Every structure is written in structure tokens, then in C-alpha cells.
Amino acid sequence: MFKIAFFVFAFVLLGVNAQDGSTCRTPSQLEGVCISIKFCNEYLEILSKYGASPSVSDLLRQVHCGWKGNDPMVCCPQLRSKPVTPAKVETTTSALTERTFIQPNQYYSLPRPPLCGYNIIGKNRVVNGVPALLGEFPWIVALGYRNSKNPNQPKWLCGGSMITDTHIITAGHCVHNRPDLYLARIGELDLYSDDDGAQPSTVTLLKVKVHEHYNPTSYTNDIAIITLAQPHNNPTVHPVCLPVDEPLRSNDFVGGFPFVAGWGAIYFNGPSSSNLQTAIIPVVKNEECSRAFINFRTTTIDQRVLCAGYFDGGKDACQGDSGGPLMISKLKNKTITFYQIGVVSYGFRCAEQGFPGVYTRLNYKNG
């Protein structure tokens, strides 16, 4: 009740009004109906899961469409997530075959909850382009490239995620024809500070393998697996879970609000952030995304990707975030588990109005 009261308070200055039951569009460009928030489970769940934070207020302001008496009305999405064909990531890494993603109990076993996707924070935060907390995403990785100007200081150009204690998942374009990639930093928070409380480790790489059908022009199948020289022994680092089980395995996530995190540029062609940043963005329908990129002849928007971001801009992954995770969180038995559903692939500039970001989907199966 307090959370709904907070929501009402957040909108007392808004004069927007619409008829109860009128049609509308959500931030994900889904068709919706303007109804009292009391009857919209999607946003009630966000209030329940994430609490009455300023970022929740910012998110709900975007879906506010009027009043019914003293109750705020929201644009409640009417389209539920549709199934997609289950996952199959076809990497040619010998130790991590495509069956790892389809049948994780065979060959090289992927961790399952509670051995993956947990953090020391113990709760969700809804955030929009703000610094991450220490230990919030203990699987995230910074990839280091040789720096000819300063050989002792790697260039941190891409991200990734630990999915086992030996394997990193990242974008294909982060490793394709990149002999200058030579190390990874795990357990990090601020790349250039030793006073952030983190206990990072620098790990060496044994081999990198790009998806065998990766296309560097169209960025299709933009995914790769990096194998470490040996399993890491950093107790602060845990793998993220992957969507290998139902219902996540057959979910298109449209209308959901996943997290993205990375050390990328704060704005297009701007400086990178030294502190890990995170934001929450809506997943949009591929049809809407395809229309946004219709004039880009080399792009392919199909079931191998998912798109996320605000069409009015403002929040997005950016340069340097490539390869990093797009994540959802699930609450079960009072325990929060994070699942990586996408890998940062590409976009037009950063948070450009009218252009969501494009992510390689991790629960896609070819055929």
C-alpha cells in the first residue's frame, strides 16, 4: 500500500489525463490499455520487486496516462511474451560445445542456481546509468587489449561474463581478428582505483573462439567464448546463470526490464567510465527494432537478437560495453537469481532517440 501511495505522490504534479480503457503505447512500444495501476500486474510487480526508489518513479512516469479518481492510471501492456525457439549457441570451442547451452548436464556442465547468478547485495536495484555497487554483478569481466602507448596499462575495450570458473561469454566482434586481446580483469568495480573495496584478479587467456557463422559486416551471430588458461580462484567472482531451462528458454522477454552493465563510454565518443555502470532498459519487439534500423542495409534483426532501450533515448549500452551482459533477475523462495539473456552487440551511437540497442540472444536455437 505504501508503494502505491508513493506512486501517487510521484505524479501529483502531472496533468496528463486519458479515458479508462483507452489504447496507448508502453516504453517498449507494446500496445497497451490505460487502466488503474491496481489492475496492472506488470507494474505492481516492479513496485513489489524493486521498491519505491527514485528510479522506479522515473520509470512509472513514462507509463502514466491519467487518473481514475485518486488512482493513477498506467499504460498496461496487453501483449505477453511469446515463445521463441530454445537456445543453441554454436561455439566451436572444444571444451564448451554447442550442447553446453542445450543440454548443460552433458559434456561441460553449466552451473545452475544456487551456484550461479547470486550476489552479495541480496536485493534488486532499479537504476538508470548509475554506478554499480561492490559485488552487484560478480560475474562481469573487463577485457584488456595491448596498449602501444602504455604497455603497462591495458586498454579496456570490451566486457564479458563468467559463465563457469573457466569460461567467459562475450561478443564476437570483441575477439574477431583481435590478437591484441591478452587478458581479462574479474571481480573489478573501478578499473583505475585501488580504493573501491574490490578484490580483482587479472587472468590470462588460453583461447578464444568466435561463433562459426559470425559475420563481421552484419554482426549476426555476434558471440564468442573465451577459455582461461586455468580456473580462476577469486572467491568474490561467481558465474551468471544462462536461460537454459523453461520458462526462460522459450521467452522472448518483450515488455521486460532487464539490466545492462559495463565500463563503456558515458556518451557517444565520450570518455569511458572507470566505475562499473548499470541501467535498466525495456525489451522491445523485434518488428519495432527492425523498422528503426531499416535504412542500415548491413543489419539483420531476426530471432538471433533481441533489442532493448528507450525509443526516446537517454539510457543504453555504449562504446566499450560491447560483449557485456543483458540480465534479468528472478525472485524465488526469497532468493534473487540473475540470468544473462543477451550479449551487448551494437547500436546507433549511444542512447540515440529512435534506436534501441541490439543484443545477441542467448536463448535462440537455429532450427
Could you characterize what this model shows?
The chain has 367 residues and is mostly beta strands. Helices cover 10% and strands 28% of the residues. The protein has five helices and 18 strands. It has an eight-stranded antiparallel sheet with strand order 5-13-12-16-17-18-15-14. Residues 1-15 and 79-108 have low confidence and may be disordered. It comes from Aquatica leii. This is CLIP domain-containing serine protease. Keywords: Disulfide bond, Glycoprotein, Hydrolase, Protease, Secreted, Serine protease, Signal, Zymogen. It is found in: Secreted.
Q: Give the CA-based shape.
A: globular
Please summarize the sheet with the most strands. 8 strands, antiparallel
The share of residues in helices is: 10-25%
**Which sequence of strands runs across the widest sheet?**
5-13-12-16-17-18-15-14
Distance between the termini: 47 Å
What's the β-strand tally?
18
Strand residues, percent: 25-35%
Radius of gyration: 20 Å
Going by helix content, strand content and strand pairing, the class is mainly beta
Low-confidence stretches: 1-15, 79-108
Count of DSSP H/I helices: 5
Order of helices and strands: HEEHHEEHEEEEEEEEEEHEEEE
If you average the pLDDT, what whole number results?
80
Domain Clip: 23-76
Organism: Aquatica leii
EC number: 3.4.21.-
Enzyme class: hydrolase
